[in-house]
UniProtKB/TrEMBL annotation:
Gene3D superfamilies according to UniProt: P-loop containing nucleotide triphosphate hydrolases
Record organism: Desulfobotulus pelophilus
UniProt protein name: ATP-binding cassette domain-containing protein
PANTHER family to which the protein is assigned, alphabetical: ALIPHATIC SULFONATES IMPORT ATP-BINDING PROTEIN SSUB (PTHR42788:SF13), TAURINE IMPORT ATP-BINDING PROTEIN-RELATED (PTHR42788)
Pfam families named in the record: ABC_tran
All copies of domain ABC transporter, residue ranges: 5-225
SUPFAM superfamilies documented for this protein: P-loop containing nucleoside triphosphate hydrolases
Chain segments carrying region Disordered: 212-231
Protein's UniProt keywords contain tRNA-binding: no
InterPro entries linked: AAA+_ATPase (IPR003593), ABC_transporter-like_ATP-bd (IPR003439), ABC_transporter-like_CS (IPR017871), ABC_transporter_ATP-bind (IPR050166), P-loop_NTPase (IPR027417)
Lineage top rank: taxon: Bacteria
Keywords: ATP-binding, Nucleotide-binding, Transport
């Protein structure tokens, strides 16, 4: 299978603290990967490096995906724009026509249970609603690569399951590679193929549900371990 993302010997140091050391990882196209680990282990840092938001101190990152959707831990919406305008922002930035963008944006908001809230501003929405707007914004571009940084924190379990369901149906129409950072393996999107645990610098362990033919260099495959499948 073609790789979606390759991390080659990636190291990250913040203020003389080594957060990531020599991470080697190939994420195949279409793989659903969950990334867990304690607070401060460097999970968000890996996502930001993959998205190109920060540059590693050393090493290389090769992105084969062109359209990257990112759901941050906190919603990060533009406060002066409506929910709909926040969602369609990445489409307009790509040159999509207003009419088509609005149609796609409304559809995505509806899938997130937010029909009727298109013209609301972020400060008129609850925390969970804002997070759903940010998920819609990531999905509206029909990403090749979707990066989720604990997007369900603070959402009640029923809402989380409903959003997972809508996300699954949105993703099932194409081969999207998914990297989902989560503290809660049970709360992750149901179909993770592989679980990676980042425990401390240079210790990225893979607990694969499907054993890869060869574990990527620098990654310890200690599976197979069946992950709980919610529902
Ligand atoms: N821009 C930065 N400048 C300095 N230190 C940083 C920066 N970004 C992250 N760090 C530090 O790097 C470490 C890893 O942060 P990161 O956010 O990647 O952890 P995490 O595993 O995602 O944690 P959490 O589960 O709490 O979100 C932390 O100690 C954090 O303080």
């Amino acid at each position: 299978m073609n790789p979606a993302v390759e991390l080659i010997n990636v190291c990250m140091t913040f203020q003389n603290r080594e957060i990531l050391q020599h991470i080697n990882l190939v994420i195949p196209e279409g793989q659903r990967m969950a990334l867990t680990g304690p607070s401060g282990a460097g999970k968000s840092t890996i996502l930001k490096i993959i998205a190109g938001l920060i540059t590693p101190t050393s090493g290389r990152i090769i992105r084969h995906s062109r359209k990257i959707g990112y759901v941050f831990q906190e919603p990060r919406l533009l406060p002066w724009e409506t929910a709909l305008k926040n969602v369609i922002f990445p489409l307009l930035a790509r040159g999509e026509r207003q009419h088509h963008a609005s149609e796609a944006g409304r559809e995505c908001l509806a899938k997130m249970g937010l029909s009727g809230f298109e013209q609301h501003y972020p400060d008129q929405l609850s925390g969970g609603m804002k997070q759903r707007v940010s998920i819609a914004r990531a999905l509206v571009i029909e990403p090749d690569l979707l990066l989720l940084d604990e997007p369900f924190t603070g959402l009640d379990p029923n809402l989380r399951d409903s959003i997972c369901h809508h996300m699954e149906s949105a993703l099932s129409q194409k081969t999207t590679t998914l990297i989902h950072v989560t503290h809660d393996a049970e709360g992750m999107i149901h179909t993770a193929d592989t679980l990676y645990t980042l425990t401390a610098p240079d210790t990225l362990h893979a607990l694969p549900r499907r054993i890869p033919s060869a574990a990527p260099e620098g990654v310890t495959a200690t599976g197979p371990t069946a992950l709980p499948r919610p529902g």
